[in-house]
Amino acid sequence: MNSLFVIVPYKYEGMWVFDDPRVGLSREPFIAGIDTMIDKFVSKIPDAEGGFRAVFSAAPFPGYTERLEWLREESGGNWYYNDYFKLEGWPCPALFKYFPAAPKSIFVKVEAKK
Question: What is the pLDDT of residues 90-105, one digit of tens each?
């Protein structure tokens, strides 16, 4: 199993979504606060709406830019908190396509596509 994962979120119909055919996801939306976090995370990335790279892991890795801390389970998903922006978000059950259980922390690096 991978310890680092990569997705390329983009805006579709005004919503942040991503595709990952490897795990059977197409236009999987980010909702319930995660979309607002993404807006904050990518505010300095030119043309982020056209797609940006997000690397994430349950363990810290060199260069991560954001950290989400587990809060609670709800509706088959889990709520996380970003201390820097003071925001909560719910990454939905698609999280389990990457992790067997909800990690206590999720470390993320966002960057422009190259």
Answer: 988 889 999 999 999 9
Q: What angle do CA 40, 94, 41 make, to 5 degrees?
A: 10
| 46 Cβ neighbours under 8 A, 6+ residues apart | 112
Q: Phi, psi at residue 42, to the nearest 5°?
A: -105, 10
How far, in Å, CA of 43 to CA of 39, rounded? Answer: 6
pTM given for the model? 0.90
Torsion angle in degrees (nearest 10) through CA of 90, 93, 96, 102: 40
Distance CA 100, CA 71 (A): 17
Look at the chain and count its residues. Answer: 114
User: What is the domain partition of the chain in residue ranges?
Assistant: 5-112
